[in-house]
Amino acid sequence: MAATGAGSPGRLVQYVVVRTDLVHQLSWPLGAVITQACHAATAAIHLHYRDPETQQYLEELDAMHKVVLGAPDEAALSNLSETLTKAGVAHKLWIEQPENIPTCLALKPCAKETVQPLLRKFKLFK
């Protein structure tokens, strides 16, 4: 199966939203924050492994597309999780243990155009 181009309609994307304050205000090491994003992305794939879109995403192993966005703080991340839940968008809110700190969330792979309106206010993670 040929990979769909990045701008093509129906392109499957996995969005990951990471709290930027962990790095910029709370001085977490960048590696620790990247690890949080990896945990959330892996968990979302695992939880929705049998989903047809997840399977299609995994079939195109060398053409996976992820977008990492930044949420300014815990409140913004939690509000996004609530919005996604209300909209029926499958995702995993990663809560670091044992500290019980929400650090990021990852959506299951889905068509970009179906979720982009819900993520519009979040910018690329920097």
From TrEMBL:
Top-level EC class: hydrolase
Domain of life: Eukaryota
GO molecular function per UniProt: peptidyl-tRNA hydrolase activity
Documented EC number(s): 3.1.1.29
Catalyzed chemical reaction(s): an N-acyl-L-alpha-aminoacyl-tRNA + H2O = an N-acyl-L-amino acid + a tRNA + H(+)
UniProt cross-references to Gene3D superfamilies, sorted A to Z: Bit1
Keyword Hydrolase included in the entry's annotation: yes
Keyword Hydrolase belongs to the record: yes
Alphabetical UniProt keywords: Hydrolase
Protein name: peptidyl-tRNA hydrolase
Organism: Pogonophryne albipinna
Classification of source organism: Eukaryota, Metazoa, Chordata, Craniata, Vertebrata
